């Protein structure tokens, strides 16, 4: 009787073991979900896992807007420096 009960418990948990393993290896960051690739690289006795970042559409748009604002800021800074140089040389 105990053997049958033990066997039933083991069989009921067989499907959940891989899911638990996947859940344990997957990490979720606030910005994007990190998905692990099957490809692993062993280098200097360290296990390095290649990761794929999958961002949602809105996150990609926000990233693009941030990059555009950053570039605009840099361009304006350069322009101001050029104007200062012109003013200094004209005096």
TrEMBL record:
It comes from the Bacteria. The keyword Signal applies. Keywords: Signal. Residues 65-91 are annotated as: Disordered. Residues 1-23 form the signal peptide. Residues 71-91 have a biased composition (Basic and acidic residues). This is Uncharacterized protein.
């Amino acid at each position: 009787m105990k053997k049958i009960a033990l066997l039933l418990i083991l069989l009921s948990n067989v499907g959940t073991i891989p899911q638990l393993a996947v859940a344990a290896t997957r990490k979720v960051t606030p910005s994007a979900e990190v998905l692990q690739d099957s490809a692993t690289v062993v280098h200097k006795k360290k296990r390095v896992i290649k990761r794929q970042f999958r961002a949602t559409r809105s996150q990609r748009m926000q990233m693009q807007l941030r990059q555009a604002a950053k570039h605009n800021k840099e361009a304006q800074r350069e322009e101001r420096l050029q104007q200062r140089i012109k003013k200094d040389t004209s005096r």
